[in-house]
């Protein structure tokens, strides 16, 4: 018997990854899992994907639950050409993951409860449910594209990266159209 998490990973591999490639996102080595903990390897089985825009690049990650359940979320950010300085050091573009970038966001399945994309417990056909969830991500990807284009924070998005204190809401986030990243 195939476990629900396998259906979800297969659906991501077969549908979401080709979609990301079709809109210009390519595999990016910032999430190299060699030598990382088992939790990190489970959370990011596909690594990260980047799309170069001018000197910056846009990064998208498919993050699965680190404990191995059948749910995932989409992390995304704009990586500036100069990289990012964090309290523990400076990191160039090529070494950054979305979660380490101040001002990064997540795309969630549900507007009200910010749930991760997952197969419902009562779903009779787990494979079909996984495929539907991945198609839902693709339909909601317009929110990510709007954020990349002009900083518009969609209803399924919440800020999450390093330095986020949890107080900012989509109503208080303001775009910075000059740099193509949201204000912090």
Provide key terms for this protein.
single chain, seven-stranded antiparallel sheet, two-stranded antiparallel ribbon, globular
The helix-and-strand class reads alpha+beta
SSE ordering: HEHEEEEEEEHEEE
Q: Give the total of domains.
A: 1
Question: How confident is the prediction overall: mean pLDDT?
Answer: 83
State the helix count. 3
**What proportion of the residues is helical, as a percent range?**
25-40%
Q: For the terminal residues, how far apart are their CA atoms?
A: 47 Å
Gyration radius, rounded: 16 Å
Percent of residues in beta strands? 15-25%
Total strand count, please?
11
Q: Tell the overall outline.
A: globular
Biggest β-sheet description = 7 strands, antiparallel
Residue runs with pLDDT of under 50 for 5 or more positions: 166-184
Descriptive notes:
With 184 residues, the chain is of the alpha+beta class. The chain has one domain. The chain contains three helices and eleven strands; from the N terminus they run H-E-H-E-E-E-E-E-E-E-H-E-E-E. A hairpin with a 4-residue loop joins strand 10 and strand 11 (181-182). Helix 1 packs parallel to helix 3. The longest helix has 25 residues, at 126-150.
């Amino acid at each position: 018997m195939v476990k629900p998490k396998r259906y979800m990973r297969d659906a991501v591999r077969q549908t979401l990854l080709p979609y990301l490639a079709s809109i210009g996102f390519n595999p990016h080595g910032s999430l190299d899992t060699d030598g990382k903990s088992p939790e990190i390897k489970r959370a990011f089985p596909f690594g990260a994907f980047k799309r170069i825009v001018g000197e910056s690049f846009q990064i998208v990650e498919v993050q699965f639950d680190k404990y191995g359940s059948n749910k995932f979320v989409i992390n995304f950010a704009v990586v500036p050409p100069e990289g990012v300085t964090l309290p523990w050091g400076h990191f160039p573009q090529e070494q950054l993951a979305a979660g380490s970038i101040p001002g990064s966001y997540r795309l969630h399945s549900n507007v009200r409860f910010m749930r991760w994309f997952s197969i419902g417990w009562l779903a009779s056909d787990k494979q079909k449910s996984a495929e539907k969830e991945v198609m839902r991500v693709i339909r909601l990807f317009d929110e990510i594209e709007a954020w990349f284009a002009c900083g518009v924070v969609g209803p399924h998005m919440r800020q999450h990266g390093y330095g986020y204190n949890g107080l900012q809401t989509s109503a208080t986030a303001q775009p910075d159209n000059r740099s193509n990243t949201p204000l912090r």
